[in-house]
Amino acid sequence: MRPGYRHGAQPMTTLGEKAVQLAQSLIRCESVTPADAGALDVLIDALKPARFAFWRLNFKDEGTPPVDNLYARVGDGPPHLCFAGHVDVVPPGDSALWHHPPFDAEIAGGLLYGRGASDMKGAIACFTAAALDYVKSRGRELDGSISLLITGDEEGPAINGTCKVLTWMKEHGERPDHCLVGEPTNAKRIGEAIKIGRRGSLNGVLKVTGAQGHVAYPHLASNPIKGLVRILARFYDAPLDYGSAHFSPSNLEVTSVDVGNATTNVIPASAEARFNVRFNDRHSASSLKAQLREQATLALSGTDLSVHLEFEPPSASFLTEPGALDGLLSEAVNEVTGLTPSLSTDGGTSDARFIKEYCPVVEFGLSTATIHKADEHAAIADLEQLTAIYRRFISLYFETFGGADAG
Fold first, then answer.
1. Residues 106, 154, 192, 376: which is the catalytic one?
2. 36 and 156: one domain?
3. Which of 71, 153, 196, 305 is at a distance of 20 to 30 A from 349, taking alpha carbons?
């Protein structure tokens, strides 16, 4: 174990060490969605001495569990820079697969282990430490505002988290000028990639209905499996698009096919498939639904089969056009790591899809290598570098948009 990082040790002196210590405190909170387990209190305790005002926001909706969220802000005027993230984590799974207990926040071999170390309590600790250091350096002369939007509902339904906090913020006159989300964005090394967008996600259920009958008398039945296969083949054979300036082609994948027929001599009455589409900015969810319905109908043209398509609420795609925000972040990354990050839109969805309706947003955080895995971890060196990047980015941001010497 690295000297000085044991639980109960004296406070560290360097900025990176403070971030690691805060990350350990957050990881020790068993905040599996939607539980808070004290994680927000850890952040509030860290922010109080720096004059942050904060609001604990509990939201609930029918059919979903209530969720605690946090909004905190220091400063009054523009420019307003927001850092966003989630303290909720996915379940650790089989504890036997973990060599380091998932909520002990152990450090071994230069790595901090624990659920959420990379996704994304580590990044929250880094940008909190960086923000606190910047505020301390400015004293009472903060030229602008820094806020934190922290949810406990990103890994779950994402109904009572960021989207409702943003609505609350709008109602209370809290509108950031720019936002940085601390989701993990780098495959191998800190500094590889900044996400300026994400593909949308659409889950669908396809059901084809025919007529049940005996397999020896197919002319007296209508096999829905034939129709299901025809539709799925059409889905796969016709590309949704060929990509766009910042996105790879949209992708449809069938995830389940179910007939529910345990009898070998019966043609079933219906057949069902589930699928997911990851779509780029060439589509909206509504246009994509219409396109898939049209393709399904055409595939069954001339048959006596019927088709029904249902869709779950989608996650929208988003894109922040390259500009000053990612430019400043790239400059900070380069100064700290020597790397020039690529501008990426790959990966899954994130809460940035909600934030993009309010202000330009980009994402930058730790490595994706161990997220959602047993023995999830973040390198101590990465946490220290990420903190330095965030700290430099804050200075560059206020120098650029605030016109003041940010220190």
1. 154
2. yes
3. 71
